[in-house]
């Protein structure tokens, strides 16, 4: 299976409800393995910062594919759900998005929810993919 198929799987609706509008799978070195069109703008520096020390995110949140974010919850040390939950700043229309980052052995999974989806829904999608990738050695 190509990495693009993993993006399709991540973005697939659940019970006819679209949860994600963007997703990317990257290497922990910052390389982009696959991404939906709006997440192709994610940079190697952004990826490296997202999986690095998150202590500064409380004062100055990270940027994800050009979207300035604030940290909601850092769960990287939680073995049940090793994810970072972020919220984007409002866009020109005032919309905000939940963005969740998960890291596996070699990969970083980044997902951007729809305006309507909540952090738990996006986190579930990311965690399911991270868990699968880890089981395959990624």
From TrEMBL:
<dbReference type="InterPro" id="IPR036140">
    <property type="entry name" value="PFN_sf"/>
</dbReference>
<dbReference type="Pfam" id="PF00235">
    <property type="entry name" value="Profilin"/>
</dbReference>
<dbReference type="GO" id="GO:0030833">
    <property type="term" value="P:regulation of actin filament polymerization"/>
</dbReference>
<dbReference type="GO" id="GO:0003779">
    <property type="term" value="F:actin binding"/>
</dbReference>
<keyword id="KW-0009">Actin-binding</keyword>
<dbReference type="InterPro" id="IPR027310">
    <property type="entry name" value="Profilin_CS"/>
</dbReference>
<comment type="similarity">
    <text>Belongs to the profilin family.</text>
</comment>
<dbReference type="InterPro" id="IPR005455">
    <property type="entry name" value="PFN_euk"/>
</dbReference>
<dbReference type="InterPro" id="IPR048278">
    <property type="entry name" value="PFN"/>
</dbReference>
<dbReference type="GO" id="GO:0005737">
    <property type="term" value="C:cytoplasm"/>
</dbReference>
<dbReference type="GO" id="GO:0032233">
    <property type="term" value="P:positive regulation of actin filament bundle assembly"/>
</dbReference>
<protein>
    <recommendedName>
        <fullName>Profilin</fullName>
    </recommendedName>
</protein>
């Amino acid at each position: 299976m190509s990495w693009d198929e993993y993006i399709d799987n991540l973005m697939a609706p659940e019970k006819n409800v679209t949860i994600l509008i963007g997703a990317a799978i990257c290497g922990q070195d910052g390389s982009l393995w696959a991404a939906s069109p709006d997440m192709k703008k994610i940079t190697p520096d952004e990826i490296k910062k997202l999986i690095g020390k998150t202590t500064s995110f409380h004062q100055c949140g990270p940027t994800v594919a050009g979207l300035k974010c604030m940290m909601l919850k850092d769960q990287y040390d939680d073995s049940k759900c090793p994810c970072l939950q972020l919220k984007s700043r409002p866009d020109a229309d005032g919309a905000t998005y939940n963005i969740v980052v998960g890291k596996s052995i070699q990969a970083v999974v980044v997902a951007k929810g729809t305006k309507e989806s909540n952090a738990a829904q996006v986190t579930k999608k990311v965690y399911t993919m991270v868990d699968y990738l880890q089981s395959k050695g990624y």
